[in-house]
Amino acid sequence: MAEQPFTDDEYEFLRHIRFGELPAAVRPEERVELTETDPARDRPERAEDPIRWNVQG
User: Fold this and answer.
1) How many Å apart are CA 34 and CA 13, to the nearest integer?
2) Contact indicator for 35, 27 with CB cutoff of 8 Å
3) Cα–Cα–Cα angle for 13, 7, 10, nearest 5°?
4) What global pTM score does this model have?
5) pLDDT, tens digit, 9 for 90 and up, residues 16-49
């Protein structure tokens, strides 16, 4: 016999039990703009010398 899936209300209750209350939403006037200080990671780091590691290719 297959189990019946939970209803949306049951899932909501289980989330509440597990995680508790959500914090209040941040109001738009309280938001701040962040500036990234780390270098972008849009490209992989340069690989080591393949001859040093005996990599075929």
Assistant:
1) 35
2) no
3) 15
4) 0.36
5) 999 998 889 999 999 998 887 877 677 666 666 6
